[in-house]
Amino acid sequence: MAESQYEVDLGNLMAFDPHYQFVSPPSSREEVVKEAIEQGTKLVQAIADALFSLPSTEDPDGPIVKLPAPTTKLPRAKPLPKPRPPTKWEVFAEKKGIQKRKKEKLVFDEQTGTWKRRHGYDRVNDDNDIPIIEAKSTDEPGTDPFVERRKEKKSKVEKQEKNRLQNLKQAAKAGALPSHVKLSATALPITGSQAMPKKVSKDELQNVAGMAAVSTASGGKFDKKLPGEKPPKHEKKYRKFLPAVEGSGMGALEKQQTEKVLNQLISKNSHEILNVEKAVNMYNVKREKKQRKQGGHSSNSSKFKANKKSFKKSSNKGSSNKGKSK
């Protein structure tokens, strides 16, 4: 088969033979695999020959070629994204004919006499750089203008965040929500697109409230009680410790606790505290084991020691008798 019959698309690194046909129908799967490998090898060789025919540039890693634009249109893996619905501001701007224009990043600050950023750190007209704010005729006496300015700024931020969430809800309803944005069902419940949050039962709320009440270091002992709140029920018995600071009654308290523990032990194991027969048996068993280990040497040495002791006793008796006779 001539090489000119292959159609090569170097932009997608793809080649195929539109005129290929089986000479005889394959009788088994092995023949199909063998024929596919042979034709695939020829197509790969055609792509390699076409790549080496392109002009290349030298590089330390080897020759580099620039691929041409692809000629074959490949299908998309996913459908085209739907257009995002316009926001409230975009609708208002289109209605009023307002056009978006690019603003400069640096703005001249009249207070400091320097150029500063429009937004971000060390920006122009920063609240921290304003030492004095002129009072208006409508201001009430006793109000702090700096506090009012911060409240106004905070309200603007909250309003902007509310508008942003509303725009996301509209985009989710239209099915044009960006892939990198995920809405939680609890924060933004949307009918039909996401499941509504489950209603929490009374028992679950009581369990959560009880866990939160005893989650402090004191077990909720020093926390303020809510109206109608019941004291926590402790299923387990907690261990009581002695006071860490020594006082007048510290010794008596320790003595009392020690006597209590000893009395419990004596009353519980009174029949095993003084068992003479058991103690003698244990002593005899240990002695027999020791003698077995030592063998005959230990028996001879014990006899020698016994004879030595008897000799000392007899000699002492003889000396005492001599003294008396004198």
From TrEMBL:
InterPro entries assigned to the protein according to its UniProt record, in alphabetical order: Ribosom_reg
Classification via Pfam families: RRS1 (PF04939)
Any single biological process term in GO: endonucleolytic cleavage in ITS1 to separate SSU-rRNA from 5.8S rRNA and LSU-rRNA from tricistronic rRNA transcript (SSU-rRNA, 5.8S rRNA, LSU-rRNA)
Region listing for Disordered, in residue ranges: 54-88, 119-164, 218-238, 284-326
Biased composition (Low complexity): 316-326
Keywords: Nucleus, Ribosome biogenesis
UniProt feature, compositional bias: Basic and acidic residues: 146-164, 221-232
Localization: Nucleus
Gene Ontology cellular-component terms listed: nucleolus; preribosome, large subunit precursor
TM helices/strands, residue ranges: none
Signal peptide: none
Biased composition (Basic residues): 305-315
Main location: nucleus
Function text: Involved in ribosomal large subunit assembly.
Protein family membership: Belongs to the RRS1 family.
Protein name, as recorded: Ribosome biogenesis regulatory protein
